[in-house]
Amino acid sequence: MRKLITLLSIMAALVACDPQTAPGAFETGLYVLNEGAFMGGTATITHWSSDDSVTTDAFAAVNGRSLGNLGNSLAADADRIYVVLNGAAAVEVLEYPGLASVGRATGFASPRHAVVLDGGDLAVTDWGRNRVYRVNASSLQRTDSVDLAGGPEAMVLHQNELWVTRSGAYGIDSVVSVLDAATFDVLATVEVGINPTSAVKLGSELYVLCSGYTDWSGGGGDRPASLVRVNLATRSVTATYPAVYPTDRPTKLQTDGQVLYWIRDGYTGDVLRMNLTDLDYPAFAWISGSAYGLFADPATRQLYVLDAKDFQQTGEVRRYSAGGQLEATVPAGIVPTAAIWLP
Q1: What gap in Å lies between CA 141 and CA 44, rounded to an integer?
Q2: Looking at residues 299-307, what average pLDDT do you find?
Q3: What percent of the chain has pLDDT over 90?
Q4: For the chain, which end, N or C, has fewer CB atoms within 10 Å of the first or last residue's CB respectively?
Q5: Distances in whole angstroms, Cα of residue 223 to Cα of each of 173, 229, 327
Q6: 24: pLDDT confidence band, cut at 50, 70 and 90?
Q7: If we measure between CA atoms, which residue out of 93, 163, 83, 21 comes closest to residue 339?
């Protein structure tokens, strides 16, 4: 009997030490969403803890199944993580910090991004139907929507307003729509640059990254990229910074609360950096390399660069100091695309 008790104790201890099964194993750290292979693959979540341990597929470790195809973005509140799955046309909802699935919101065509609204409901942009949906926090059912043509993309919540970029989808648009966050009524539209894709709020201003447009027909219809600053109170453009190179197609604007970061082009991957006092769009890379996603941590001012490599092998995440020094590198899944830090 004593040997049996000892054996059981050892087994319990081993389970408790396993970072994939121990209670609280996924608390405090960086959550990286990996898209997965484009055709037939599955998205995964990599967890990089504050003590530098890494679980490359944390969702599967907890739930015993895959997430689904083509992860696109992440959102979170104090109790949940929301995983937007473009290929699976769904939003997977996870309990935080345990990462157990609590349900899935469905009925979308091509969801892109999610934002948690005041009161806990979710706003989800959907390219496939050119709509923004409200998803009830309890039932995970779609309860309201608004038609926004032009590929609704990123969202920023400001007071009782929801600012939505219209990226053009596979065409051209140049508008940010302002919605009443409670009713989804359209309050205003703001003309910015060509194909606004991402945006961040800094104080009383919204910075909007506009990716421009490439005319693949060769007809000469290319349109340049830009960064645009908008005053949130007056809903007016206060500055426009044209991209230095006409072929730049910048993506994934981030801020640490003091400076702006983005990727020069979605596939070439140089990281650009801009101080708020700069007068011009940056001409040179701040970090050279194959960035595909970014996360800037306002608490530490560290920058996380997500490298998809050749989009077939597993990627990696690199952490840089605010001064640009490489601090650490860890493995990720296939095509790491977005990340958030949770305490």
Answers
A1: 24
A2: 97
A3: 86
A4: N
A5: 11, 19, 37
A6: low
A7: 83
CATH 2.130.10.10 assigned to domain 30-342? The reply is yes
pLDDT at 197: 96
Q: Is residue 186 within 8 Å of residue 179, measured between CB atoms?
A: yes
CB 333 within 8 A of CB 36: yes
Q: Which residues contact 242 (CB under 8 A, 6 or more apart)?
A: 224, 225, 226, 281
Q: What is the CA radius of gyration of the chain?
A: 21
Give the other-Cβ count within 10 Å of 117's Cβ: 19
> In the 8-state DSSP scheme, what is residue 268?
T
Give the Cα separation of 154 and 165 in Å (integer).
5
Burial class (CB in 10 A: 0-12, 13-18, 19+), 80: middle
The answer for residues whose C-beta is within 8 angstroms of residue 195's C-beta and 6 or more apart is: 167, 168, 172, 173, 174, 210, 211, 212, 213, 223
pTM for the whole thing?
A: 0.91
Contact 90, 68 (CB under 8 A): yes
Q: Please give the Cα distance from 41 to 79 (Å, whole number).
A: 28
Strands 336-342 and 29-34: antiparallel
Strands ordered across the beta sheet of 80-85: 71-76, 80-85, 90-95, 101-105
How far, CA to CA in Å, does 61 sit from each of 10, 46, 320, 332? 21, 11, 28, 15
DSSP three-state, residue 8 = helix
Q: How far is CA 14 from the centre of its chain?
A: 35
Instruction: Give the angle subtended at the CA of 74 by the CAs of 71 and 75, to the nearest 5°.
Output: 155
Q: Residue 92: pLDDT above 80?
A: yes
Q: How many CB atoms lie within 10 A of CB 83?
A: 27
Amino acid identity at 19: P
Which token pair is 259?
A: 């400076």
Among 111-115, 172-176, 217-221, 283-287, whose mean pLDDT is lowest? Answer: 217-221
Give the pLDDT score at 5.
34
Helix (H, G, I), strand (E, B) or coil at 336: strand
